[in-house]
Amino acid sequence: MADAAHPSPYRALVPSLWVCADCGYRAEQRRGCPTCHDEVLLDGMDPDIRLWLLDEDARRRDARQTKLLWVSVVSVVGFAIGAVLVEPVVGVTLFFSIPGVVGLIAMTLFIWSLLGRVFPYRERFPYLRG
Ligand SMILES: [Zn+2]
């Protein structure tokens, strides 16, 4: 009979992984997350929970990318409106010519890419892959 003073030698053969769904904290024993105080750790060895956690991570990554895209769209539209106010001819050219619109789109994509590199998404469950 195994107890705390004399742990079973077979205990190490049974892997155990408990994961916080909010911050990605992991532990070998079930307990509360030290960072997210009310969060109960989930069984990371359950394939359904692992899949759900990876899907949740992908959903958060997509939501963050969408947020960064909106930030870049708003900043480029703000720039274009500023250009209209400062120099109406340049502003009209930006909005009503194909090179102007292509330039605004390219600027939006560049800023979006830059924001993604400056503020990269931190995966919460990289240890669940593989
Ligand atoms: Zn947590």
What does this protein structure show overall?
The protein is mainly α and 130 residues long. It has 2 domains: 1-45, no CATH class; 59-119, no CATH class. The protein has 3 helices and 3 strands. The protein has a 3-stranded antiparallel β-sheet with strand order 2-1-3, with no helix packed on it. Helix 1 packs across helix 2 and helix 2 (88-96) packs across helix 3 (98-118). The radius of gyration is 24 Å and the shape is elongated. Bound molecules: zinc ion. Zinc ion (ZN) binds next to loops.
Tally of individual helices: 3
Percent helix, as a range, is 40-55%
Q: Which term fits the overall shape?
A: elongated
Radius of gyration: 24 Å
Total number of β-strand segments? 3
Oligomer: single chain
H/E series: EEEHHH
* Class per helix and strand makeup: mainly alpha
Mean pLDDT: 86
Biggest β-sheet strands, sense, barrel: 3 strands, antiparallel
Weakly predicted, low-confidence segments = none
| Main β-sheet, spatial strand arrangement | 2-1-3
Q: Structurally, how many domains make up the residues?
A: 2
Distance between the termini: 35 Å
* Ligand kinds: zinc ion
Tell me what portion of residues adopts beta-strand conformation: under 5%
